[in-house]
């Protein structure tokens, strides 16, 4: 009898645990990060911050939104980006010549909303690429404080945006395409498969 009772208890507990589970590990992880306010465009003092960690999280939420259709994730991306933008699209957060992953999110929100402030923000980051320091071979320095260093993660931080922006707004700009290509195919700067 006691044995049966234990079995029954375990069975009830397992049903309750299963019922509490989010639909996937991805949703579970995202919900957990959202509940802590991570990746929302604000630093720990509540000030706007342009940071690649936030951009990366927003990119992941985009994939989750596309997979689940759950607008909670889309809304969180938009809220996070709006936290770093002034209403006219000027980017806040005291950024200065950094390659970040926030910039592709500007393009994503411009595509989905057609709100001009997201294009203004993308334009601002695109203009920054023209003056971002680069090696003699043309690769962007990873950061201003790392002279002549090209890092692999700089490729997806800067180049994804560079290519996406060029495709959306300047698809005939050959010098931009050549420069995009230099970021990954110049054997002197970095090589990966
Ligand atoms: C969307 O996700 C949120 C957060 O996990 C959840 O609370 C909500 O129930 C989901 N909405 C739908 C329609 O599945
Ligand atoms: C946007 O607004 C801010 C604050 O009012 C201002 O400093 C900035 O020049 C404006 N940007 C543009 C592009 O008008
Ligand atoms: C084309 O791309 C180059 C290289 O990024 C840039 O310097 C130039 O301003 C772009 N041309 C136009 C018309 O935007």
Automatic annotation (TrEMBL):
Signal sequence region: 1-20
Biological processes annotated in GO: carbohydrate metabolic process
UniProt cross-references to Gene3D superfamilies, sorted A to Z: 1.50.10.10
GO MF term set: hydrolase activity
Read off the Pfam families from this record: Glyco_hydro_88
Top-level taxon of the source organism: Eukaryota
Transcription regulation in keyword set: no
Q: Which InterPro entries match?
A: 6-hairpin_glycosidase_sf, 6hp_glycosidase-like_sf, Glyco_hydro_88, PolySaccharide_Degr_Enz
Record key words, sorted? Hydrolase, Signal
Q: What is this protein called?
A: Uncharacterized protein
Which species is the source of this protein? Hermanssonia centrifuga
């Amino acid at each position: 009898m006691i044995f049966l009772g234990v079995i029954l208890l375990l069975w009830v507990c397992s049903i309750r645990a299963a019922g509490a589970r989010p639909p996937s590990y991805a949703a579970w992880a995202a919900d957990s990060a959202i509940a802590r306010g991570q990746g929302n465009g604000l630093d720990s003092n509540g000030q706007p911050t342009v940071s690649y960690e936030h951009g990366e999280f927003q990119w992941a939420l985009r994939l989750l939104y596309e997979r689940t259709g759950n607008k909670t994730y889309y809304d969180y991306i938009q809220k996070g980006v709006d936290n770093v933008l002034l209403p006219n699209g000027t980017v806040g957060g005291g950024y200065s010549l950094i390659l970040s992953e926030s910039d592709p999110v500007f393009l994503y929100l411009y595509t989905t909303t057609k709100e001009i402030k997201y294009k203004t923000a993308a334009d601002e980051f695109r203009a920054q690429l023209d003056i971002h320091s680069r090696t003699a071979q043309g690769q962007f320095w990873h950061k201003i404080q790392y002279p002549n260093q090209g890092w692999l993660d700089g490729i997806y931080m800067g180049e994804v945006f560079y290519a996406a922006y060029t495709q959306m707004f300047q698809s005939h700009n050959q010098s931009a395409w050549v420069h995009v290509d230099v970021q990954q195919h110049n054997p002197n700067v970095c090589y990966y498969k």
